[in-house]
Amino acid sequence: MPGRIEQKLWNFIRNQPFFDMHSHMAGFDLGGPADDRHEKYLPQILMNDYYAYLAGSCSDIQINPQKFGEWKQIDKQEYMEMVFPVIEKCRALTTHVAYREGIRKLHPFKGADINKENWKPIDRSISAKYKKYGERGWQRRVCKRAGVVRQVHIATLPYVVTHFDSLPPEERKAQKQLLAPSLVLDSYIFAGFQVHKTAYEETKKILNINPSNYNEYLDFCGRAIKLFKERGGTSVKLLAAYSRPLFFEEVADAHASELFAKGPENISGQELKKLQDNLMWHLLEMSLSCRLPLIVHTGYAIPTAWGDPELLLNIIRSPRLPGLKIAVIHSGWPNEGKALILARTFRNCYIDF
What we know:
Layout: H1 2-14, E1 18-23, H2 42-46, H3 50-58, H4 76-90, H5 94-106, H6 119-146, E2 148-155, H7 157-166, H8 169-178, E3 179-184, H9 194-207, H10 214-230, E4 235-238, H11 253-261, H12 269-289, E5 294-297, H13 313-316, E6 326-329, H14 336-345, E7 349-351
Parallel strand pairs: 1-2, 2-3, 3-4, 4-5, 5-6, 6-7
Helix pairs in contact: 7-9, 10-12, 11-12
Protein backbone atom coordinates (compact mmCIF):
# COMPACT_ATOMS: atom_id res chain seq x y z
CA MET A 1 0.00 0.00 0.00
CA PRO A 2 2.65 2.60 0.86
CA GLY A 3 4.18 2.00 -2.56
CA ARG A 4 0.88 2.71 -4.32
CA ILE A 5 0.32 5.87 -2.28
CA GLU A 6 3.82 7.12 -3.05
CA GLN A 7 3.24 6.44 -6.75
CA LYS A 8 -0.03 8.40 -6.70
CA LEU A 9 1.74 11.31 -5.00
CA TRP A 10 4.58 11.18 -7.52
CA ASN A 11 2.11 11.14 -10.43
CA PHE A 12 0.30 14.14 -8.94
CA ILE A 13 3.56 16.09 -8.59
CA ARG A 14 4.68 15.25 -12.12
CA ASN A 15 1.42 16.57 -13.56
CA GLN A 16 1.76 19.98 -11.94
CA PRO A 17 3.09 22.85 -14.11
CA PHE A 18 6.41 24.05 -12.71
CA PHE A 19 7.25 27.75 -12.44
CA ASP A 20 10.97 28.05 -11.66
CA MET A 21 11.50 31.13 -9.47
CA HIS A 22 15.29 31.30 -9.57
CA SER A 23 17.51 30.46 -12.50
CA HIS A 24 20.54 31.44 -14.55
CA MET A 25 19.63 30.62 -18.12
CA ALA A 26 21.70 30.68 -21.31
CA GLY A 27 23.82 33.82 -21.56
CA PHE A 28 23.45 34.50 -17.83
CA ASP A 29 22.81 38.14 -16.84
CA LEU A 30 23.89 39.90 -20.04
CA GLY A 31 22.86 37.38 -22.71
CA GLY A 32 24.87 35.29 -25.14
CA PRO A 33 25.56 35.52 -28.89
CA ALA A 34 22.67 35.36 -31.36
CA ASP A 35 24.14 32.16 -32.79
CA ASP A 36 24.81 30.06 -29.71
CA ARG A 37 25.23 26.68 -31.40
CA HIS A 38 28.59 26.15 -29.77
CA GLU A 39 29.78 23.00 -28.06
CA LYS A 40 29.55 22.47 -24.34
CA TYR A 41 31.23 19.70 -22.41
CA LEU A 42 30.53 17.46 -19.44
CA PRO A 43 32.97 19.24 -17.07
CA GLN A 44 31.31 22.56 -17.97
CA ILE A 45 27.88 21.15 -17.14
CA LEU A 46 29.09 19.68 -13.84
CA MET A 47 30.98 22.81 -12.79
CA ASN A 48 28.47 25.32 -14.09
CA ASP A 49 27.29 26.39 -10.67
CA TYR A 50 26.81 24.22 -7.60
CA TYR A 51 29.94 22.08 -7.88
CA ALA A 52 31.90 25.29 -8.40
CA TYR A 53 30.87 26.28 -4.87
CA LEU A 54 31.55 22.84 -3.41
CA ALA A 55 34.97 22.49 -5.04
CA GLY A 56 36.62 25.02 -2.74
CA SER A 57 35.28 23.36 0.40
CA CYS A 58 36.03 19.73 -0.45
CA SER A 59 39.02 19.84 -2.82
CA ASP A 60 42.45 21.45 -2.79
CA ILE A 61 42.30 21.90 -6.56
CA GLN A 62 41.35 25.35 -7.75
CA ILE A 63 38.73 25.18 -10.51
CA ASN A 64 37.68 28.21 -12.50
CA PRO A 65 33.87 28.24 -12.96
CA GLN A 66 32.73 27.91 -16.55
CA LYS A 67 30.50 30.98 -16.31
CA PHE A 68 33.53 33.27 -16.30
CA GLY A 69 34.37 32.16 -19.82
CA GLU A 70 37.63 30.43 -18.95
CA TRP A 71 36.88 27.00 -20.44
CA LYS A 72 38.29 25.82 -23.77
CA GLN A 73 37.71 22.64 -25.76
CA ILE A 74 41.33 21.57 -25.47
CA ASP A 75 41.11 21.77 -21.68
CA LYS A 76 38.19 19.37 -21.15
CA GLN A 77 40.33 16.29 -20.42
CA GLU A 78 42.35 18.28 -17.90
CA TYR A 79 39.25 19.79 -16.33
CA MET A 80 37.48 16.45 -16.10
CA GLU A 81 40.48 15.06 -14.22
CA MET A 82 40.12 17.98 -11.83
CA VAL A 83 36.38 17.40 -11.41
CA PHE A 84 36.60 13.68 -10.54
CA PRO A 85 38.00 14.24 -7.00
CA VAL A 86 35.08 16.58 -6.32
CA ILE A 87 32.61 14.01 -7.64
CA GLU A 88 34.16 11.31 -5.46
CA LYS A 89 33.58 13.37 -2.33
CA CYS A 90 30.03 14.34 -3.35
CA ARG A 91 28.63 11.02 -4.58
CA ALA A 92 26.46 10.55 -1.48
CA LEU A 93 24.90 14.03 -1.72
CA THR A 94 21.38 14.41 -3.06
CA THR A 95 22.74 17.22 -5.23
CA HIS A 96 25.07 14.84 -7.03
CA VAL A 97 22.30 12.27 -7.47
CA ALA A 98 20.07 14.95 -9.03
CA TYR A 99 22.88 15.99 -11.38
CA ARG A 100 23.72 12.41 -12.30
CA GLU A 101 20.16 11.25 -12.93
CA GLY A 102 19.33 14.42 -14.85
CA ILE A 103 22.31 13.78 -17.12
CA ARG A 104 21.29 10.12 -17.44
CA LYS A 105 17.78 11.13 -18.59
CA LEU A 106 19.14 13.48 -21.25
CA HIS A 107 22.29 11.57 -22.21
CA PRO A 108 21.77 7.87 -21.31
CA PHE A 109 24.87 6.09 -20.07
CA LYS A 110 25.78 2.70 -18.63
CA GLY A 111 27.00 2.24 -15.10
CA ALA A 112 25.93 3.33 -11.65
CA ASP A 113 27.65 6.70 -11.89
CA ILE A 114 29.75 8.98 -14.07
CA ASN A 115 33.28 7.64 -14.09
CA LYS A 116 36.56 7.65 -16.02
CA GLU A 117 35.33 4.85 -18.30
CA ASN A 118 32.01 6.34 -19.44
CA TRP A 119 32.43 10.12 -19.33
CA LYS A 120 33.59 10.56 -22.93
CA PRO A 121 30.39 9.16 -24.56
CA ILE A 122 28.35 11.40 -22.25
CA ASP A 123 30.54 14.33 -23.25
CA ARG A 124 30.03 13.62 -26.97
CA SER A 125 26.26 13.48 -26.51
CA ILE A 126 26.24 16.81 -24.65
CA SER A 127 28.37 18.48 -27.32
CA ALA A 128 26.13 17.17 -30.11
CA LYS A 129 22.94 18.50 -28.49
CA TYR A 130 24.35 22.00 -27.97
CA LYS A 131 25.70 22.12 -31.52
CA LYS A 132 22.38 20.97 -32.98
CA TYR A 133 19.91 23.07 -30.98
CA GLY A 134 22.03 25.88 -29.54
CA GLU A 135 22.29 26.60 -25.83
CA ARG A 136 18.97 28.47 -25.62
CA GLY A 137 17.14 25.96 -27.82
CA TRP A 138 18.44 22.96 -25.88
CA GLN A 139 17.48 24.55 -22.57
CA ARG A 140 13.96 25.19 -23.86
CA ARG A 141 13.64 21.53 -24.87
CA VAL A 142 14.87 20.39 -21.46
CA CYS A 143 12.45 22.74 -19.68
CA LYS A 144 9.54 21.43 -21.74
CA ARG A 145 10.53 17.87 -20.94
CA ALA A 146 10.72 18.70 -17.23
CA GLY A 147 7.33 20.44 -17.23
CA VAL A 148 8.78 23.92 -16.61
CA VAL A 149 6.27 26.37 -18.09
CA ARG A 150 7.96 29.61 -17.02
CA GLN A 151 11.42 30.46 -15.77
CA VAL A 152 12.41 33.51 -13.74
CA HIS A 153 15.73 34.57 -15.22
CA ILE A 154 18.19 36.73 -13.29
CA ALA A 155 18.84 39.51 -15.79
CA THR A 156 19.90 43.10 -16.45
CA LEU A 157 18.58 45.87 -18.67
CA PRO A 158 21.07 45.02 -21.48
CA TYR A 159 19.62 41.49 -21.50
CA VAL A 160 16.08 42.59 -22.40
CA VAL A 161 17.26 45.37 -24.73
CA THR A 162 20.60 44.64 -26.44
CA HIS A 163 20.46 40.85 -26.18
CA PHE A 164 16.79 40.38 -27.09
CA ASP A 165 17.15 42.81 -30.01
CA SER A 166 20.05 40.75 -31.37
CA LEU A 167 17.99 37.56 -31.65
CA PRO A 168 16.10 36.47 -34.77
CA PRO A 169 12.33 37.16 -34.34
CA GLU A 170 11.31 33.52 -33.83
CA GLU A 171 14.12 32.92 -31.35
CA ARG A 172 13.20 36.08 -29.44
CA LYS A 173 9.57 35.01 -29.31
CA ALA A 174 10.49 31.56 -28.01
CA GLN A 175 12.71 33.03 -25.29
CA LYS A 176 10.05 35.49 -24.16
CA GLN A 177 7.49 32.71 -23.91
CA LEU A 178 9.70 30.83 -21.46
CA LEU A 179 11.61 33.50 -19.56
CA ALA A 180 10.35 35.94 -16.95
CA PRO A 181 13.31 38.36 -16.63
CA SER A 182 14.09 39.75 -13.18
CA LEU A 183 16.15 42.95 -12.97
CA VAL A 184 19.09 42.78 -10.56
CA LEU A 185 18.95 45.98 -8.48
CA ASP A 186 22.32 45.68 -6.81
CA SER A 187 24.31 47.68 -9.35
CA TYR A 188 21.91 50.61 -8.83
CA ILE A 189 23.00 50.75 -5.18
CA PHE A 190 26.67 50.42 -6.18
CA ALA A 191 26.95 46.77 -5.14
CA GLY A 192 26.71 43.38 -6.84
CA PHE A 193 29.09 41.24 -8.86
CA GLN A 194 31.32 42.41 -11.69
CA VAL A 195 28.77 41.41 -14.33
CA HIS A 196 26.25 43.79 -12.76
CA LYS A 197 28.78 46.62 -12.75
CA THR A 198 29.35 45.95 -16.45
CA ALA A 199 25.58 46.00 -17.00
CA TYR A 200 25.37 49.33 -15.16
CA GLU A 201 27.84 50.92 -17.59
CA GLU A 202 25.93 49.44 -20.53
CA THR A 203 22.68 50.79 -19.08
CA LYS A 204 24.09 54.33 -19.13
CA LYS A 205 24.79 53.88 -22.85
CA ILE A 206 21.33 52.45 -23.56
CA LEU A 207 19.61 55.37 -21.82
CA ASN A 208 22.20 57.89 -23.01
CA ILE A 209 22.40 59.23 -19.46
CA ASN A 210 25.46 59.79 -17.29
CA PRO A 211 24.02 61.13 -14.02
CA SER A 212 26.15 63.68 -12.22
CA ASN A 213 24.07 64.36 -9.11
CA TYR A 214 21.59 62.65 -6.80
CA ASN A 215 18.40 63.81 -8.52
CA GLU A 216 19.71 62.92 -11.96
CA TYR A 217 20.65 59.51 -10.62
CA LEU A 218 17.15 58.86 -9.30
CA ASP A 219 15.77 59.83 -12.70
CA PHE A 220 18.25 57.45 -14.35
CA CYS A 221 17.14 54.57 -12.09
CA GLY A 222 13.47 55.29 -12.76
CA ARG A 223 14.00 55.26 -16.51
CA ALA A 224 15.95 52.00 -16.33
CA ILE A 225 13.22 50.22 -14.36
CA LYS A 226 10.47 51.58 -16.60
CA LEU A 227 12.27 50.48 -19.77
CA PHE A 228 12.93 47.06 -18.24
CA LYS A 229 9.19 46.64 -17.67
CA GLU A 230 8.38 47.86 -21.19
CA ARG A 231 10.78 45.30 -22.66
CA GLY A 232 9.19 42.35 -20.90
CA GLY A 233 10.66 42.44 -17.40
CA THR A 234 8.45 40.82 -14.78
CA SER A 235 10.16 41.45 -11.43
CA VAL A 236 13.18 42.93 -9.68
CA LYS A 237 15.85 40.91 -7.90
CA LEU A 238 17.99 41.73 -4.86
CA LEU A 239 21.24 39.85 -4.18
CA ALA A 240 22.49 42.24 -1.50
CA ALA A 241 22.94 39.56 1.20
CA TYR A 242 26.12 38.48 -0.55
CA SER A 243 27.73 41.83 0.27
CA ARG A 244 25.80 43.45 3.15
CA PRO A 245 22.88 42.93 5.58
CA LEU A 246 19.34 42.91 4.18
CA PHE A 247 18.19 45.64 6.58
CA PHE A 248 17.66 48.95 4.75
CA GLU A 249 17.23 52.00 6.93
CA GLU A 250 15.12 54.95 5.78
CA VAL A 251 17.80 57.62 5.27
CA ALA A 252 16.83 61.23 4.49
CA ASP A 253 17.19 62.32 0.86
CA ALA A 254 19.20 65.39 1.88
CA HIS A 255 21.83 63.23 3.57
CA ALA A 256 21.88 60.79 0.65
CA SER A 257 22.37 63.70 -1.75
CA GLU A 258 25.40 64.86 0.25
CA LEU A 259 26.87 61.36 0.17
CA PHE A 260 26.27 61.01 -3.57
CA ALA A 261 28.06 64.33 -4.13
CA LYS A 262 31.20 62.79 -2.64
CA GLY A 263 31.11 60.16 -5.39
CA PRO A 264 29.84 56.64 -4.64
CA GLU A 265 33.25 55.30 -5.64
CA ASN A 266 34.90 57.48 -2.97
CA ILE A 267 32.86 56.37 0.03
CA SER A 268 32.74 53.09 1.95
CA GLY A 269 31.61 51.61 5.24
CA GLN A 270 28.67 53.32 6.91
CA GLU A 271 28.61 56.18 4.41
CA LEU A 272 28.15 53.81 1.49
CA LYS A 273 25.59 51.78 3.43
CA LYS A 274 23.55 54.93 4.17
CA LEU A 275 23.53 55.85 0.49
CA GLN A 276 22.57 52.29 -0.47
CA ASP A 277 19.78 52.29 2.11
CA ASN A 278 18.26 55.47 0.74
CA LEU A 279 18.52 54.39 -2.89
CA MET A 280 16.94 51.00 -2.20
CA TRP A 281 13.75 52.57 -0.88
CA HIS A 282 13.47 54.70 -4.00
CA LEU A 283 14.17 51.71 -6.25
CA LEU A 284 11.43 49.72 -4.53
CA GLU A 285 8.98 52.61 -4.91
CA MET A 286 9.84 52.76 -8.62
CA SER A 287 9.38 49.00 -8.92
CA LEU A 288 6.02 49.17 -7.18
CA SER A 289 4.85 51.94 -9.54
CA CYS A 290 5.73 49.60 -12.44
CA ARG A 291 3.95 46.69 -10.71
CA LEU A 292 7.16 44.68 -10.48
CA PRO A 293 7.37 42.33 -7.45
CA LEU A 294 10.60 41.97 -5.48
CA ILE A 295 12.51 38.68 -5.36
CA VAL A 296 15.09 38.63 -2.55
CA HIS A 297 18.04 36.26 -2.14
CA THR A 298 17.94 35.21 1.52
CA GLY A 299 19.65 32.59 3.62
CA TYR A 300 23.01 31.75 2.11
CA ALA A 301 25.43 34.52 3.05
CA ILE A 302 28.71 35.04 4.88
CA PRO A 303 28.22 36.21 7.63
CA THR A 304 24.97 34.21 7.76
CA ALA A 305 23.21 37.03 9.64
CA TRP A 306 23.29 39.15 6.48
CA GLY A 307 20.77 36.84 4.80
CA ASP A 308 18.29 36.67 7.69
CA PRO A 309 14.81 37.20 6.11
CA GLU A 310 13.57 38.96 9.25
CA LEU A 311 15.79 41.91 8.29
CA LEU A 312 13.21 42.63 5.56
CA LEU A 313 10.44 43.24 8.09
CA ASN A 314 10.44 47.04 7.80
CA ILE A 315 10.15 46.81 4.00
CA ILE A 316 7.44 44.13 4.12
CA ARG A 317 5.15 46.19 6.33
CA SER A 318 6.12 49.71 5.24
CA PRO A 319 3.31 52.16 4.36
CA ARG A 320 5.69 53.57 1.73
CA LEU A 321 5.34 50.34 -0.25
CA PRO A 322 1.66 49.36 -0.08
CA GLY A 323 1.05 46.18 -2.02
CA LEU A 324 4.66 45.46 -2.96
CA LYS A 325 4.86 41.70 -3.32
CA ILE A 326 8.04 40.21 -1.86
CA ALA A 327 9.27 36.67 -2.51
CA VAL A 328 11.73 35.29 0.05
CA ILE A 329 13.93 33.00 -2.04
CA HIS A 330 15.70 29.88 -0.72
CA SER A 331 13.19 29.94 2.16
CA GLY A 332 15.67 32.00 4.20
CA TRP A 333 17.57 28.81 5.11
CA PRO A 334 18.95 28.35 7.75
CA ASN A 335 16.26 30.73 9.04
CA GLU A 336 13.38 29.06 7.21
CA GLY A 337 11.17 29.26 10.30
CA LYS A 338 11.37 33.06 10.24
CA ALA A 339 10.58 33.10 6.53
CA LEU A 340 7.53 30.89 7.07
CA ILE A 341 6.22 33.18 9.82
CA LEU A 342 6.71 36.26 7.61
CA ALA A 343 4.81 34.61 4.75
CA ARG A 344 2.06 33.41 7.10
CA THR A 345 1.66 36.85 8.70
CA PHE A 346 1.88 39.27 5.76
CA ARG A 347 -0.27 38.90 2.64
CA ASN A 348 2.38 40.58 0.46
CA CYS A 349 5.17 38.19 1.53
CA TYR A 350 5.73 34.84 -0.17
CA ILE A 351 8.18 32.02 0.49
CA ASP A 352 9.99 30.04 -2.18
CA PHE A 353 11.86 26.82 -1.47
